[in-house]
Amino acid sequence: MSISIRPGRPMDASDAARAREHQQALRAELPLVREAAHSWRIGLGGLLLALVGFSLIRGPSEVDKVEPPWNVVIGCLLLVSLATGAYGAYRLLSAHNGRPRTRPVDRRTSASTQNHLLALTALKDLRHGIIATFLCTVFLVAAVGTTWYGPEKAKPKLLVRTTTGAVLCGDGATGDGRRLTLKTKPGRVGVPLSDVLVVETVEKCP
Amino acid sequence: MSLVPYKEIHQNEYAEEAAQRFTFIRLGSGTAELHGPCPRCGHAIRVPVVDGVYKTFWPRRRNSAGPTPPSGNVRTEDVICTCQEEHPGRQEGQFGCGAFWSLEITTS
Ligand SMILES: [Zn+2]
Ligand SMILES: [Zn+2]
Predict the structure, then answer these.
(1) Which of B80, B84, B97, B107 to mutate to test the interface with A (most CBs of A within 10 A)?
(2) Complex ipTM value
(3) Tens digits of per-residue pLDDT, B48-63?
(4) Which of A126, A178, B58, B104 is deepest in the core (most CB within 10 A)?
(5) How far apart are CA B91 and CA B8, in angstroms?
(6) Which helix (H) or strand (E) holds A96?
(7) Which CATH number fits domain A157-202: 2.30.30, 2.60.40, 2.40.128, 3.30.70?
């Protein structure tokens, strides 16, 4: 690679003013990026906190009601959401505060240039942080959505054995003192209470 | 070398002398530096040469100092003296001794 430097075009005062503005913009760049990262961090943090709080309050009791294997899917979505959220938070924090590591002392390049390189890194952190946080939100919403609209776990059924050897299974049991009525698959079936031998709960009807 | 007063000034010799004496150092990420002595005040300066400067998040505007050609060939860089030394008469927000010139940098 070869580099050659030649005299450029003639310049006037407005070109000089533009060059000076450019130098000023370079010096102001890093604080501007850090400030933007700060705003994003606060905004996205608030959004996430609200979402996480909301989903945690509604969380475990509702997840229990969802039919397998959807409860596992919800668990995985929450895990991925947590991971992307933590990663996004790290990148946003890095964008605001700088990466948590020391940098080799560079005496060759000017402070402006070093700050510009830092600003580029911070800008990359900021972009990735925003993307990761949005992904985290998407996974969280998917998890909450699956909890709400996923297939509900079947309620336990009642299994009734009678002295006649009949087996009834269903739910919605009612009684009037003489007969026990059960909602079974074929329809409502009643048996005299005196015939009832065993009543037990089962996960599923045979 | 006595301290020359701050004065925004352009002379053709500045560009010619700078073209002879400045070196161009690539630093990666669209960033480079020009190193050399200011042709007017003689102080050593290091001038950042960048592809773009962040100004606001929406929208991301590009370099204000002239159009940026596709990387890897010819670019014109307007340079102002950015020396750290005192020059009498310099105002807040001004840099160096006030000298400015333009360089054409060809990389291949
Ligand atoms: Zn000087
Ligand atoms: Zn100078």
Answers:
(1) B80
(2) 0.84
(3) 999 888 887 765 444 4
(4) A126
(5) 11
(6) helix A70-97
(7) 2.30.30
Residue A144 has pLDDT above 90, yes or no: no
Residue-wise pLDDT tens digits, A42-84: 999 888 888 777 776 666 667 777 777 888 888 899 899 999 9
On whether any CB of chain A is under 8 Å from the CB of B51, the answer is no
Q: Do A5 and B19 make contact, defined as CB atoms within 8 angstroms? A: yes
SS3 B60: coil
Whether omega before B39 lies within 30 degrees of 0, making that bond cis, reads no
How many CA atoms are closer than 13 Å to the CA of B46, on its beta-carbon side?
15
Q: How many CB pairs under 8 A join A and B?
A: 130
* Residue A7 preceded by cis peptide, ω within 30: no
Q: Closest to A116 (Cβ–Cβ): which among B8, B10, B48?
A: B48
Q: Does B65 touch chain A (CB under 8 A)?
A: yes
Is the previous residue joined to A206 through a cis bond, with omega within 30 degrees of 0?
no
Beta strands in chain B (DSSP E): 23-28, 31-37, 44-50, 74-80, 100-107
Sign of CA dihedral A182, A184, A188, A193: negative
- Tokens 């005192």, residue? B86
- Written as one letter, the residue type at B78 is D
β-pairing, A157-162 vs A167-175, is antiparallel
| 3-state secondary structure at position A6 | strand
Neighbouring C-beta atoms of residue A19, cutoff 10 Å: 24
Q: How far, in Å, are A87, B32, B69, B96 from residue A90 at the CA level? A: 5, 29, 35, 39
Say whether A16 and B65 touch across the interface (CB within 8 A).
Answer: no
Whole-prediction pTM? 0.77
